[in-house]
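User: Hello! I'm new to structural biology and keep hearing that structure can be predicted from sequence alone. Could you demonstrate with D-lactate dehydrogenase (cytochrome)? Please show me the input and the output so I can see what each looks like.

Assistant: Of course. The first part below is the input, the amino acid sequence of D-lactate dehydrogenase (cytochrome). The second part is the output, the predicted structure written as tokens.
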Amino acid sequence: MSRPSLVRTIRHIPFSRQCSRQFPAGGRRALHTSPKFFSNEDKTFRGQLYESTARRIQAQREAEARFASMTPTSEFARQSAFTFAIVFSCALAYWFGSMKPDTVSPLSTAPLSSMDPKGPKHNTSPTNLEACWTDMVSIVGKEHVSTEESDLQVHSGSDWSSYTTKDNERPFMIVSPSTTEEVSKIMKACHTRNVPVTGYSGGTSLEGHFSATRGGICVDFSRMDKIVKLHKDDLDVIVQPALGWELLNEELGKEGLFFPPDPGPGAMIGGMVGTGCSGTNAYRYGTMRDWVLSLTVVLADGTVIKTRQRPRKSSAGYDLTRMFIGSEGTLGLVTEATLKITVKPKHESVAVTSFGTIREAAECVSRVVGEGVPIAAVEILDDVQMRCINESGFTSRIWKEAPTLFFKFSGTKSAVQESVGLVQTLAKSKGSKSFAFAKDADEAAELWSARKEALWTVMAKRRDESDHVWTTDVAVPISRLPDIIEETKDDMASSGLLAAMVGHVGDGNFHAILLFNDKERKTAEEVVHRMVKRAVEMEGTVTGEHGVGLIKRDYLAHEMGESTVDTMRKLKQAFDPLCLLNCDKIVRIQKPKAGEVQPW
């Protein structure tokens, strides 16, 4: 048989038979042990074939032996070990997870006792702030980021603020964006780096609203000062936050329109929204809350929201617009406001009447309001305030230094004349000593200017640079106005401080302006404390329009109750979990130190 035939024959014989036919018992082992098993001829072909076959048999038997060694018991053990490893890993992961409690409280309120006693965990390390500076430069450009000492000081407090800024309460840098998109990027960067942020527009607020209590950065909106769009037919206007209300009215006046809220000179829309301000026109036109239709707001994480569209009324969803009004920059940064506007009155006039006592003046206000006489505004200035106006020389005339009421009238010429006559009669019945009214627009502006210059005329009386000014306000139901004004006036007079009184008394709101030095601070604090306490006890409010800031926050619980303040704190947590935005304002987020809160 030839070699190819032999190969074909072997291929068709089963492998086991090949082995049994070719090798005797024990012959397979001989393949590996006996080099003489094959003849010389076989080693050339057949021997190589059989040798290869023997290696295959040996490899198969070794594999069978290994498989046989894996008994059912060892396989079960292997599977059990694998299962145990999985279960143990899950248990270990659960244990580590349980070590960090859930950060979302199931409570509907956030009591101060539940807050971290160490305060929010901001990262204001030099390294992080320097890295944040790089971020800001990339967003707004180097020319719009300032670390100049003079800028930092201006953006930390003011001479007219009731709050004295501490040395460590200043921002690391001032950043000036120009668009909502840039503000969003700024907040995203600060949110990522956990850097606190304080907003700033006009800087005219009075209760420590923009003091950087936690450092960080100050977002100055001075580059966002434009009228975006006027909808004359709809009587609304879209504006940016650093637009002043005076400039807005100057532009609206060209169209025969005006925006009623009129706080102090220099106030800007962003701050007016933040404090929910009002002004001398509040008696007739209402406060800032009544004149804002919609807001564009950047939240703490950089999210941009618009609270609603432009209709005059809407019952769609939560009223987020009013949520942000009065929030003092603690819930978000306002970058645009849609404001209602109205037609400018055809005719205006002003009347001034003086009285022998402050109570007589307050009773006259109650009588005019009670009779329903249509007046646009009514302001009270006490004798001290009138003397300050005279001595300052800020107005062109000399005033009677007695408690004085300033009335503003608007409407048709005949209606104004009728209202002036009614007020004159009522004032006389309450002991009026003098009564004068403006005969034209220029004279009306001159008379009213005395009221708008009140704060600055008192500040002009400072003895030296060590004197501070404390300007505060409260409001009560109109029937209690004569009582609180008389009691507060007597208290201020007996304090020995230079203290003046002014107010938008048509809606029960009045202000006290006190001058004091460091030695007199305790006296000033006690006068203000008693004034606020009186207002609360008369079912009034601790602030009618200035806002809460740092000065009034500890009085809120006395006016509204602890649970209401705790609810406000919960809202703060919901909008700003890291407490980045204007930290410490309105509600405390950290327990006060001993002696920090004045006993009630």
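User: So the tokens describe the shape?

Assistant: Right, they're a compact way of writing down the 3D structure. Reading them back into a model, for example: The longest strand covers residues 347-355.
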